[in-house]
Amino acid sequence: MAMKLNINGKQVSVAAEPGTPLLWVLRDELDMTGTKFGCGVASCGACTVHVDGEPVRSCSTYVDDLEGTEITTIEGVNGPAAQAVQTAWREMDVVQCGYCQSGQIMSAVNLLATNAKPTDQDIDDAMAGNACRCATYHRIRAAIHRASDIMEA
């Protein structure tokens, strides 16, 4: 089934069966491999993208539900919050293995876009659905605080 999706500000035509997860369309059909497959049941957050500005798990979000929405992936995320998060991630040396980081970044960008000065609890709540096997949670939290400071400057 052919459908048109708005991904990272561009209209793309995709051929996918109803019930196909967005993750597989991104990775297999569009060769956008920044969004990762982690668990396949929306528990780990590695596949997080934004749909109409909200973080969603692309492994359990079906393409046939997305016509008329704006989808943003790690390849297309931009704006002040995204730039601050990317800068802070590098400064704070957040990444260890890196597998979960695209999902972590997408969740952090959403948090800072909606709450420019989050508390530790705000961060923990917003990031709760993102698992990191390397346990870099303390660096992720510190980097989100740093990104907040960058945005404030």
TrEMBL record:
Q: Is Metal-binding a UniProt keyword of this protein?
A: yes
Superkingdom field? Bacteria
Q: Where are the transmembrane segments?
A: none
Q: Which InterPro entries match?
A: 2Fe-2S-bd (IPR002888), 2Fe-2S-bd_dom_sf (IPR036884), 2Fe-2S_ferredoxin-like_sf (IPR036010), 2Fe-2S_ferredoxin-type (IPR001041), 2Fe2S_fd_BS (IPR006058), Beta-grasp_dom_sf (IPR012675), Diverse_Oxidoreductases (IPR051452)
Task: Give one GO molecular function term.
Answer: oxidoreductase activity
Q: Where is the 2Fe-2S ferredoxin-type domain?
A: 1-77
The keyword Nucleotide-binding is annotated on this UniProt entry: no
Query: Which keywords are on file for this protein?
Result: 2Fe-2S, Iron, Iron-sulfur, Metal-binding, Oxidoreductase
Output this protein's name.
(2Fe-2S)-binding protein
Q: Could you tell me which species this protein originates from?
A: Hwanghaeella grinnelliae
